[in-house]
Design a protein that fits this description.
Layout: H1 9-23, E1 27-28, H2 29-40, H3 44-56, E2 61-65, E3 68-72, H4 75-111, H5 118-144, H6 149-184, H7 188-195
Antiparallel strand pairs: 1-3, 2-3
Length: about 200
């Protein structure tokens, strides 16, 4: 003989609602825990969980008085709660269908022009050739960039600034050499050797 199948959560919820509808009374949790297993076949361990799920869905009202919670439910409110839940679900389904249609349209739109036709293959080859040609032209342009009048002028200005800076440093070196000669009576070759100054050190032309 096969083992009797237990009640599903929805079956437990329905049977628990019957307790409230049939009695039209107010209960504490301990009352439901006694009644539900005996009259509706709901296991004692699941009574609290099932009851809380009904409260969360506004099917059962709960009010705390002192240290105890009291539960009750009326058919009219339960009906309205179910209707509200059903309306929400239908709205979600409708929105999901609309999103699906929109996505399908986007997919179809994305496919347009991507068919592997001879014309498309030819255009892709032409596009690749143009890209390669552009890359080659840019490389060629860099070769001749040194002859660009603006680049030449910029280089000339940079050379002038560099030459002026070199002249200032040369002035400083000769000033130090002059001071060293007077202070220590060293000749040029000894000073050059001590400071690592080339023998042909002079101003730039």
């Amino acid at each position: 003989m096969s083992k009797k199948k237990g009640l599903s959560l929805e079956e437990k919820r329905t049977r628990m609602m019957e307790i409230f509808f049939e009695s039209k009374d107010v209960f504490q949790l301990k009352d439901i825990e006694k009644i539900a297993p005996k009259t509706k076949g709901i296991t004692p361990m699941s009574v609290k969980e099932v009851l809380q799920s009904l409260v969360d869905d506004n099917m059962v009202d709960c009010e705390r008085v002192g240290t105890s919670n009291y539960y009750w439910a009326f058919p009219s409110k339960a009906l309205n709660a179910r209707k509200h839940k059903l309306d929400e679900l239908q709205k979600q389904i409708s929105e999901a269908k609309q999103r699906k249609v929109s996505l399908q349209k986007l997919v179809e739109k994305a496919k347009v022009g991507r068919q592997d036709t001879k014309e498309r293959s030819s255009l892709l080859k032409e596009l690749q050739a143009l890209r390669e040609e552009r890359t080659g032209q840019q490389a060629e342009l860099e070769k001749y960039r040194e002859c660009d009048p603006e680049v030449v002028e910029e280089m000339r200005k940079s050379n002038v600034v560099a030459k002026e800076a070199a002249s200032r440093w040369t002035d400083n070196v000769f000033a130090i050499k002059s001071w060293t000669k007077k202070k220590f009576a060293f000749d040029d070759s000894r000073i050059n050797k001590a400071f690592g100054i080339p023998e042909d050190f002079d101003y730039m032309d």
